[in-house]
Every structure is written in C-alpha cells, then in structure tokens.
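Re: beginner question about structure tokens

> Can someone show what the tokenized structure looks like for a real chain? I only ever see the sequence side.

Sure, here's an example I had lying around. Input first:
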Amino acid sequence: MDTFNKIKMIFDEQTATILELTAQEPMTASQIGRRLNIPHSVCYRKLKMLIDAQLISEISSPDQPFRCVKAKRYACNIDKAYVALESGELRCVLKLRNENRLQTFRLNRLA
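And the corresponding structure tokens:
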C-alpha cells in the first residue's frame, strides 16, 4: 500500500484509535471492539486494512490454560508519525518500526 493511503488511514478516527490503543499494549479484536463500541465485523475489517498496510502486526497470545484456540493480539508497527512544515510544504512523516527509512507525503494531496 502506498504512503498516501497509509496516511489517510491514520487520519480516520477509528483506525487512529486502534493504532493508539495497540501502541500502548497488544490487544485482541474483542478488546478493541469493546473499547471503540463497534461491531466485530467492523473491527476485523479495520484490523485487516491496518495489517495489509503493515501499520499493525498480528501476534500470538501467550499460552492460556483451558483455551483451545489462542486469541490473536494486535500491536502497532508505527514508531513515529507526525505532520511537519518543511520548505513551505506541509508533509506527513511516517516511520515504521521495521523500516529504517521515513515515508513522507505532501498533505495537499489529501484535499
């Protein structure tokens, strides 16, 4: 997915909240859905979009006694995201944890 679409996702209220929650600690889809008060189907759709964009990762939960299926948890992959005014241009800068480079995009394209 290109940087423009990743940035559009970050500016969406629900996906931004998912990123904030999972940056604090890994969470299950059920936990995220309850915190956002959204249906499971909406939560899973947003999680899939974020995974496809590599903005979050799916991680396995530690072994839990008496559970046949391990609950998947989700963790934010964003190290830094900010808006900057550089050389007279408004830009959004994105740094993922698993990449050494910064991804930048001019915000006037969002209009």
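Each token stands for a local structural state, so reading them left to right follows the chain. The first strand starts at residue 27 and ends at 28.
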